[in-house]
Design a protein that fits this description.
The complex is a heterodimer of chains A (375) and B (174). Chain A has helices at residues 5-40, 56-66, 77-96, 121-130, 132-142, 146-177, 182-188, 216-229, 241-244, 254-279, 290-301, 304-334, 342-372, and strands at residues 104-106, 109-111, 192-197, 200-208. With 375 residues, chain A is mainly α. Chain A has one domain. In chain A, a hairpin with a 2-residue loop joins strand 1 (104-106) and strand 2 (109-111). In chain A, helix 1 packs across helix 3 (77-96), helix 1 packs across helix 10 (254-279) and helix 3 (77-96) runs parallel beside helix 10 (254-279). The model of chain A has no long low-confidence stretch (mean pLDDT 84). Chain B is an all-alpha fold and 174 residues long. Chain B has a single domain (3-141), classed as Four Helix Bundle (Hemerythrin (Met), subunit A). Helix content of chain B is 79%, strand content 0%. Chain B has seven helices and no strands. Chain B has helices spanning 3-24, 28-48, 52-76, 79-86, 90-113, 127-139, 143-166. In chain B, helix 1 runs antiparallel to helix 2 (28-48) and helix 2 packs antiparallel against helix 3. Chain B is globular, with a radius of gyration of 20 Å. Classes of the chains: A mainly alpha (375), B mainly alpha (174).
Amino acid sequence: MGESAFEIAINCVKLVLVFLLMVQMVPVLVWLERRGSGFIQNRFGPNRVGPLGLMQLLADAVKFLTKEEFVPKAATKLLFYAAPVFALLPGTLAFSAIPMASPLKWGEHTFLIQGYEIGVGIVFILAISSLAAYTILMAGWGSGNKFSLMGALRASAQTISYELALGLSLVGVIMMYGTFNLTEMIHAQEGAMQFQAFGFTISSSLLPNWGIFYQPLAAVLFFAATFAESNRLPFDLAEGEAELVAGFHTEYGGFKMLLFFIGEYGHMMVASGLMATFFFGGYNIPWTTTEQVYQWALGIVGSPDWASALSSAVHFAMFFAKLAAFLWIFIWVRWTLPRFRYDQLMDLGWKTMLPWALANTIITAVVVFAVSQTW
Amino acid sequence: MTADIFLFWLLASVTLLSGVGVVLVSNPIYSALCLAMTMVGVSAIFATLGAYFIAGVQMIVYAGAVMVLFVMVLMLFDLKTEIATFSRGRISGAIKIAIVGLLAGLIAGTFAMTTTIAGKPETKEKAGHAAKSLGELLFTKYVFGFEALGVLLLIIAIGVVGLARSKGGTHAKH
């Protein structure tokens, strides 16, 4: 929680800020999703309300808030109401652990631009996001509807299956950086490509020092598994409309439905943020180090406090550019690929991705050990 | 009252309350959800002790995987008959009382035999190093137990697959 009252207050404010940031991103993403799908499918998308259809979201928010509030007769009331609230938790808690910019040093204080720093960042994020299955199960069973329950069982089986591939694909990354800490990982990806092998230092100014060049297979597996984790197409078996109406949220309407929506987008944001952090240098600007950006900022504004603030702001913008790029890929894939069949989905998870992730782990272990030896 | 003490009492009471809930609630689903809550509480207490890695693993393995499967299976049952068969019968009652006695004995024994309480670890800030030293211990001093457990789990997995297959498995043709 913090050592002094000031620290505790700052930490609480930061948590609220991260939560608001996440929730406020959702309308923008929904707009992007609709306009993007229109663009991809060669039609207009919402373009009547306000400039470029931007006010459509406001109208939708009013609609969601004023819709009739109902509970099905067969529902278990407690779980039915608890599920949408719980849907927000995993995404928010996991997103708070991702560093979004270089620390802001102001006088004697150092402010980390993230909700909280945890030494075992990856383990924490995996642990929190593994709780997402409960939300789906609570919603599905609590609705008292067979379609909901079947959708929930499908969705949670899928989440659990892909969690294995997700976790295993990260083991190689952890071994390569030698740490669980996300900030240390970002520091390891600073500047142009440079690494130690057999006692020599190999460097190249052509590529940035990003994780994806060391762990390409892990990056592909991780990104595919996060699609399944957030129940997005092509893995949205949970709401196969033809057979399940709408899956676990069939019985939900109005604002409760919106909370599930925000939860799903929260998962997407966590996945995109982790993609950027593990494989694309986090908040670092490609080919530069945090120190270089700080020196550049010092040359512009002079005082160290403001220089630190400026470099934090620049890094924050960089992180958001990367986050937005991955979020766009999520949307792009949704409107491009068709849905899998359920057996194809399970085969992909257990018979393809899991063995490849295991192979990646073993190969990384051997290579990391071999390369650490001097020639 | 410092923040740490406040956190401890909060987490301990949540954990204990949900633990009591597991036993007292008659609906198996709520029972399982309470157990999941207990797991989360225990993992949070681990985190306040500085054992972040154990906390994370506890959450991933127990709350995130094992209990989710329990809840999934429970949801497929017809709960009304399950509750009836579960809470009647003399033999099952005797077994329950025996198990309660065993557990009470275990807890009393633990209290009686505990002489000191281990203090907080010094290296609270260096959680990464705690994970490292845990790994070193697991792969050097306790490597036999660790590997034996792995083999045991493998045997269980094979046994389960064998049992499921002997009745035709999921693709059985009736």
